[in-house]
Specification:
The complex is a heterodimer. By secondary structure, chain A is an alpha/beta fold. Helix content of chain A is 57%, strand content 7%. In chain A, helix 4 packs antiparallel against helix 15, helix 13 crosses helix 21 and helix 32 crosses helix 33. The chains are: A alpha/beta, B alpha/beta. At the A-B interface, strand 1, helix 1, helix 6, helix 15 and helix 28 of A face helix 7, helix 9, helix 12, helix 13 and helix 14 of B. Strand 1 of chain A pairs antiparallel with strand 2 of chain B, so a sheet runs across the interface.
Chain lengths: 774, 549
């Protein structure tokens, strides 16, 4: 029942789909397509290009095309940087478990060799080595990791790697087909690599005829395991002297829970039956717990698996990695501001544990930052680019900078110097000359912040690790620690957690302290030794370490007088250059003495010295954190780098379609701001909530029906509903019966498609109510 | 109904009355009697707070046996100790337990009542005026449920009553302060009432339980739509289309605001997100505009609201339209094929934008559909912008498909009527009987043989005769004829010569759905044409004409 020939093109619908092809403009389109694939090179000549791809001209439409271009590139570059750094850190996070898996696959049959001797006695003993990889509940996240695992295993060249996914394996037939195809395909790859393979002819016989499911040589179906086994045996004939050929077939099953248990059951059974001919290794990705396996498969099948459990990534640690990569270590790129970070953090921890959804929100934040903030052209650039960017700034940009809150604060701070203030506000050239300093200031802040943050992390870890009953600190994950840093307005330095750490620092014993100081120093050396701004801190830490050694030495000296030439060691330490301190201390570490901070005053002098040292260390860190762990909002022009639009993120990702629809139907006036249905017109003192309940005949029909609907019970009599509807409409004057009916039917049909009611056969001409909450 | 001289509990009692009354208005007429009784007797009764409970109990029972309602209310012993009990912890329990029930009783009215209490109106006159204006003005919902011929007088009465109650309570509050116990009772009542109001606003689920697990709420009247004049689908669509759009100007502004988002949408699509639009109103117009706003991209508009649109047609259209191939293989294979095409380097079409109207359409709601669509949507060179209407859209996507779709959600409350979308649906209000249009029947018959027409004519003539015989309105279903009876008739009129040919004709009719059948209580098949006698007459006339040709 299609409607044809109605008002305009919108109303004529006759096909399921409709194509709109681009208008042919020959010279432009090929260039453009090239551009899209490779947009970092060259610039688009078309001045409206960036508007065409959807960017808007900001600054009241006065933005230059160059600036728009920079924003677009800024987004693409920043996001690809973030993406690659996240991917890298996730792989690092999982590298240990990857190695485990690879070594498991490598050794899977070496240990079984003994068992195969049992088979000589005719024991029905065919176990498939199986690794259960516990992946965490977020199966979409795991796709990348499993591809990486497959890559690693393929690199080893001793395996054929087959990835089976539930979407391709609806039945046993399809599963086997998948397996055979992938193995034979990878075999072809091997052949292409080694040109001198002799038996290429043999394999040709085995290739498939794609059209029907039979092999070219006839009698076997392409999903028969026999094909695989024959081929495999053929490859491994004793006369085949090519040792480089893979020996095992590794089957990766990524989403175990999504498989039909009966399919897997049969599949595993077949594999185990062929196991004396083909060497299979199973890798099962399990998202939940081992119970899933035990419930899905019968014990007879489970018995044929030789199981080893392995743990893949913990998604919370992945989040920690991501936060470190994006928020802490990245000094120049875009970061999430206070509220957006909180939102993402909470959605992750409280709702889905999904790294991929976290990333997509992050991507949106980055994209929108570049999309909406004209100053974003100053973000994510290094020193070389800065001058060229600054030259691009127009007067409007400078005005925008002056509008930023943090800049206003900066100006206020300059208040005593009225000349300075005037120049800041009025002299464009002056402001421009100042900008490099400000932009650099942001970068500096981040550098220092990241060091201090890592330092704090090290302190926390060592305090947690030293397992002293006196020490009472919470272990906070990195993302939670950063959460504190960004959430507390005073910055992390004033956070309760930090203060508690510093208090507890005063209680640790000497071995812990030296451990901690060494770790801190190592960190400083590794990352930022060259940085002159930290030279003082480094020397101070070294100083602490030396003093600690001194105290230890004195203690030894006093305890066993005349025994060792302790003074010589201490002098050597103090004389050596700072780089060697660490190593020398490590050497002298065999001396096992422990100091504890002094509680009772009557101890020996060394202990007192130690207590003083502890106090100083704690004070040092306190001042260090105070100066470097400030909240980001204290930094001038932080708006360039920090994304703050939390509401938009919520609108985009945490939606309530039902609530929105209910609101639209229940309070249409909030959307349609018309005078005719406005309660405020009639009565001023009426409170809003109450008047929402009122029904106006001028409202949309569906809204009227919906409001009545709210008063019904679980069953709705259509006739009564219609009559009620009619009585409302008639308030505005008499109305044609047919029209009422038509409007009623249209309205109810709408409510039905929206999912509020459904027809029921329980009683004649009744609808069932489906929603209750408001 | 004066109150000043009464003892405390009476107002409490009285408060209940309007509440019941609210229910009375909502519920069918017979409840009125209860109201009257309570109304007249409440003066001399010395009720306690248990009244509320007992009255409620009474109502519950009354639903089972309405005749005894009167007795039950007053046969409940008025136990003075109940007052104490009610103040204790026991009270809270019963309260919470009952709140589901209460929820239904509390209406608009209660809230207004509370308002009045809150504002503590000083003079009776003011209060009366206030209440009167309020009640009469702002209770359209209730109005609508009243039986049309109900007089306004009752409403007035209620207002009086209510206002009495209110003032009464206030007065008593002041005058009888010493009777602490009783005042406590009032306090409890009041807090309860406040709590009840909160419940009403916050806990829709309370309402759910009230509606599902109490016997009283399931009552609806026995009216049916057959009282109305019949309406044809075509007529309906025409009438709907001819209706003026409400708030056209404002809706235009809304649409314009949304159109301002186009460039943003486009940028977001380019950046790898897919867009889904939700919210009340037809989003078709806006999405069509978006699809046609640019002339340099490939767009495929998919009309999900058409019942014939399925995953198969979507894949077919993409493969035929853009890959220039013929689709073959399973849905998953086709999907894979599309994705591979859009990831190879030298392809003809760089990016494809899919505009998908109503991705939540009924016929699309399968796991396979969303699985395949999500795989297509996750391809970086295919972008998807979809619209959805259903309020529970979230349930359609699982974790895996959600992450593949990578949706951005936009609220697009256009308030536009779903004219086009719904023109494809046969409204279930026009239930199966009126689905058949006489034109359709006529159309089918004109292509059949003379004899087949004869059989059909015999059938409808029987139906017309049956309907005329009957004193009351019969449904088409009830005018049907038994299989054997019809066969005999047709044979007598030489329309058929054997059971086989007869059967053949019937099959033909059934295939075109112009007749329907059901198994009667005696186990025989009853055949009928699902149309009312008037239309059947029209068809019979046309058949005559056909016969003459």
């Amino acid at each position: 029942m299609t409607l044809k020939g109605h008002q305009d093109f919108l109303d004529s619908v006759s096909k399921e789909s409709f194509q709109i092809r681009p208008r042919p403009t020959p010279p432009v389109s090929p260039r453009k397509s090239k551009k899209k694939s490779d947009s970092t090179k060259g610039s688009e000549n078309d001045p409206f290009y960036f508007e065409r791809i959807g960017l808007e001209r900001l600054l009241d439409g006065k933005e230059t095309p160059e600036a728009m271009q920079l924003r677009h590139w800024g987004y693409e570059r920043t996001w690809s940087q973030i993406l690659s750094s996240i991917e890298k850190s996730l792989l690092v996070e999982n590298s240990a478990s990857f190695n485990d898996i690879v070594s498991f696959v490598d050794n899977s049959y070496s240990s079984i060799e003994i068992e195969t001797s049992f088979q000589a006695f005719g024991l029905p003993y065919r176990e498939i080595p199986t690794a259960l990889i516990f992946t965490g509940i977020n199966s979409p996240d795991n796709e990348l990791l499993f591809t990486r695992i497959a890559q690693r295993l393929r690199e080893a060249k001793s395996n054929y790697v087959v990835m089976l996914q539930s979407k391709d394996c609806g039945s046993l037939k399809m599963t086997m087909k998948c397996l055979n195809e992938q193995v034979l395909a990878s075999m072809n790859d091997f052949e292409n690599q080694d040109e001198e393979m002799n038996d290429a002819d043999d394999t040709d016989e085995m290739t498939f005829d794609v059209e029907n499911d039979k092999l070219a040589d006839g009698h076997l179906q392409r999903y028969d395991m026999e094909v695989l086994a024959e081929w495999f045996e053929d490859k491994r004939k004793p006369n085949n002297d090519d040792k480089s050929l893979p020996a095992k077939i590794v089957i990766l099953i990524q989403d175990f829970e999504a498989f039909e248990p009966s399919v897997l059951e049969d599949f595993i059974y077949i594999c185990s039956q062929y196991q004396d001919r083909v060497k299979f290794v199973l890798l099962l990705g399990i998202a939940t717990t081992i119970n899933a396996l035990q419930q899905a498969l019968p014990s007879s099948i489970l018995n044929s698996l030789r199981v080893k459990k392995m743990q893949l990534q913990n998604s919370e640690r992945c989040l920690g990695r991501i936060v470190t990569a994006v928020q802490v270590e990245n000094h120049i790129g875009i970061k999430l501001g206070k509220m957006p970070y909180k939102y993402l953090h909470e959605v992750f921890l409280l709702y889905n544990y999904s790294v991929s959804s976290y990333m997509s929100k992050l991507q949106y934040a980055v994209m929108h930052h570049f999309f909406s903030n004209p100053l974003s052209i100053l973000a994510g650039i290094d020193d070389q680019e800065l001058p060229s960017r600054l030259s691009l700034l127009s007067e409007n940009h400078l005005e925008a900078i002056r509008m930023q809150k943090s800049f206003m604060k900066y100006v206020e701070a300059q208040l005593p110097d009225s000349d300075e203030v005037r120049r800041l506000l009025e002299d464009n050239a002056y402001l421009e000359s100042l900008l490099p300093v400000l932009i650099k200031g942001i970068e500096q802040y981040h550098k220092k912040f990241s060091i201090a943050f890592e330092c704090l992390w090290i302190i926390q870890q060592s305090l947690v690790n030293c397992k002293d009953p006196k020490i009472n600190v919470d272990r906070k994950a990195k993302h939670s620690l950063y959460y504190l840093a960004i959430q507390e307005d005073g910055g992390l330095c004033d956070a309760y957690h930090t203060q508690k750490l510093l208090v507890n620092l005063k209680k640790i014993d000497s071995s812990c302290l030296s451990d901690l100081l060494q770790k801190c120093l190592e960190f400083f050396y590794a990352n930022h030794y060259a940085d002159p701004c930290l030279a003082q801190e480094v020397s101070e830490l070294e100083n602490f370490l030396v003093r600690l050694c001194d105290i230890e030495q004195t203690f030894i000296y006093e305890n066993n007088k005349g025994e060792e030439s302790s003074s010589s060691t201490s002098s050597t330490i103090s004389s050596t250059s700072s780089r060697t301190i660490l190593s020398s201390i490590k050497e002298s570490k065999n001396v096992v003495i422990k100091f504890s901070p002094l509680i009772q005053g009557e101890e020996e002098s060394t202990n007192t010295l130690y207590t003083i040292l502890l106090k100083q260390v704690s004070e040092f860190f306190d001042t260090f954190f105070k100066s470097n762990l400030k909240h980001y909002s204290t930094v001038t022009l932080h708006e360039v780098v920090y994304y703050e639009n939390e509401k938009l993120l919520k609108h985009m990702f945490s939606v309530h379609p039902r609530a929105a629809t209910q609101k639209a139907l229940g309070q249409p006036n909030r959307y349609i701001k018309c005078r005719c249905c406005d309660y405020a017109n009639d009565e001023d003192d009426e409170d809003e909530e109450e008047s929402i309940e009122r029904i106006f005949p001028t409202q949309q029909d569906t809204c009227i029906l919906y409001k009545m609907y709210l008063e019904f019970g679980k069953m709705i009599n259509m006739y009564d509903w219609l009559m009620a509807f009619k009585s409302i409409l008639e308030r505005d004057g008499p109305i044609d019966e047919k029209e009422v009916q038509a409007r009623f039917i249209a309205g109810v049909t709408e409510l039905q498609t929206l999912g509020f009611v459904k027809p029921t056969s329980r009683k004649a001409d009744h609808f069932q109510r489906l929603t209750w909450a408001r | 109904m004066s109150i000043q001289s009464k003892t405390i509990p009476q107002p409490i009692k009285e408060i209940q009355v309007p509440l019941h009354e609210v229910q009375v208005v909502v519920e069918p007429v017979e409840r009125k009697q209860v109201y009257k009784h309570t109304n007249t007797r409440k003066m001399r009764n010395s009720p306690t707070p248990t009244i509320r409970r007992s009255a409620r109990k009474a109502q519950e029972k009354e639903n089972i046996n309405s005749s005894s309602s009167n007795n039950i209310i007053y046969s409940t012993p008025d136990n003075p100790f109940d007052v104490n009990k009610e103040n204790g912890t026991d009270d809270e329990n019963t309260w919470n337990f009952r709140s589901g029930k209460k929820r239904r009783v509390v209406g608009n009215f209660e809230r207004q009542l509370r308002n009045v209490l809150k504002e503590a109106t000083e003079s009776k006159q003011e209060a009366t005026a206030y209440l009167r204006s309020k009640y009469i003005k702002s209770s359209p919902v209730k109005d609508s449920f009243q039986v049309p011929d109900e007089s306004n007088g009752e409403t007035e009465e209620e207002v009086d009553e209510l206002q009495d109650t209110v003032l009464g309570e206030n007065a008593d509050d002041e005058s009888d302060e010493k009777e602490e116990q009783k005042i406590q009772v009032i306090e409890t009542k009041r807090t309860r009432r406040v709590a009840a109001v909160h419940e009403r606003d916050e806990k829709g689920w309370e309402r759910y339980f009230a509606d599902h697990h109490s016997t009283s709420s399931a009552r609806t009247s026995f009216h049916t739509l057959s009282k109305l004049p019949a309406f044809e689908q075509k007529d309906l669509i025409e009438t709907i289309n001819s209706l003026p759009l409400k708030h056209q100007d404002q809706l235009g502004t809304i649409a314009k605001n949304y159109e301002a988002l186009f460039s943003q949408w486009y940028y977001q699509l380019r950046c790898g997100f897919n867009i889904i639009c939700y919210g009340y109103g037809s989003k078709r117009g806006i999405l069509e505009k978006f699809a046609r706003a640019r002339d340099d991209i490939h767009v495929l508009i998919i009309n999900g609201f058409m019942p014939k649109t399925t995953l198969k047609t979507v894949l077919r259209d993409i493969i035929q339209g853009y890959l220039n191939e013929q689709p073959h293989g399973s849905m998953e294979q086709q999907t894979k094929h599309i994705v591979t095409y859009f990831s190879i380097l030298n392809r003809e079409i760089n990016k494809l934008y899919l505009v998908f109207h109503n991705i939540d359409a009924v016929q699309l709601r399968t796991e396979q559909t969303y699985n395949c669509l999500s795989i297509i949507a996750s391809c970086p060179n295919i972008r998807l912008i979809a619209s959805t209407d259903h309020i529970n859209i979230g349930m359609l996507f699982d974790q895996v498909t959600t992450s593949r779709f990578n949706w951005l959600w936009f609220e697009l409350a256009t308030f536009q009527p779903h004219k086009i979308e719904h023109s494809f649906q046969n409204s279930s209000l026009m239930n199966s009987e009126s689905e058949l249009s006489p034109q359709a029947v006529y159309h089918v018959l004109s292509s059949l043989s003379q004899r087949a027409r004869g059989v059909f004519k015999t059938l409808i003539e029987h139906q017309i005769a049956e309907a005329e015989k009957a004193s009351k309105h019969l449904k088409p279903k009830d005018t049907g004829i038994e299989y054997n009876a019809l066969y005999d008739k047709c044979r007598r009129e030489f329309h058929v010569n054997s059971d086989n040919t007869f059967r053949g004709h019937l099959t033909e009719f059934r295939d075109h759905r112009i007749i329907q059948s059901y198994r009667s209580a005696h186990g025989t098949d009853i055949l009928y044409v699902p149309l009312d006698p008037d239309r059947l007459k029209g068809i019979a006339e046309k058949l005559e004409e056909l016969g003459e040709d």
